[in-house]
Fold this protein.
Amino acid sequence: MRGLLTLRDLSTDKIMELIKYAMKLKKGFRISYPDKKIATIFFENSTRTHYSFQCALMNLGVKVIDCNTHTSSVAKGETLYDTVRTFEALGVDGVVIRHSQDEYFKELENIQIPIFNGGDGKSNHPTQSLLDLMTIYEEYGRFEGLKCCIVGDILHSRVAHTNIEVMRRLGMEVYISGPEEYNDNSAEWIPLDEACKTMDVVMLLRVQFERHQEKMQMTVEEYHNKYGMTVERMKSMKQNAIIMHPAPINRGVEIADEVAECEKSRIYKQMTNGVYVRMAVISDALDGNL
């Protein structure tokens, strides 16, 4: 099984290679695969990841087959393996998959075409992490010694779990903040006001209402006041510090509307970089290097 399933499979050298390849693509380098076909199969709702992958594929000249899981045989009870095996039998050259099951790809070990993980459960989101890293690297030109605090719903976040592991490997200091009920002790917890004053990167997470087994133990307004990036907290940040968010953003919850597109925000740059990161990953796999 080839492709990109988790960043734990990649060395830091390979991660840096992909980031620099994405930066090269962003500067105008072009490569094309007009004879290739890749299917996108999303079992969860998505805008950025789904259509970013499709833009990346189209930029590479790859033909896109978008599988609607609501009208496919999945609705009749077809297994994930049989769905993917069907596309493999139809002659596609790879599949992009998002699934609510943690490490769904363990069921696909017999699949021979590349699989690109668009997010699994609460565990992995490798291309999101790569685009986050690319955004940070463009900003600072390094990872070693940078401090990042990830704020919010750590417990339910595949973004947080992927980023914490890879950022540490790259030499960053990683902290977490937010409500105690979302703290899974995956990193040292610090108060948000302290994080805003001391971090190079403050990465906010969406409150994932759809993943919660119970409702938040506070109102939206209380969450924003206690754990959101308010204008006052933004103003307290270091001069060159940046604000990030994997999106979609809940304006007025984890981030104030006035802050979402402020000078320190890199949220929409992250989205742009996602296209180039996914182009790099897909190209590398189609060339047989992933």
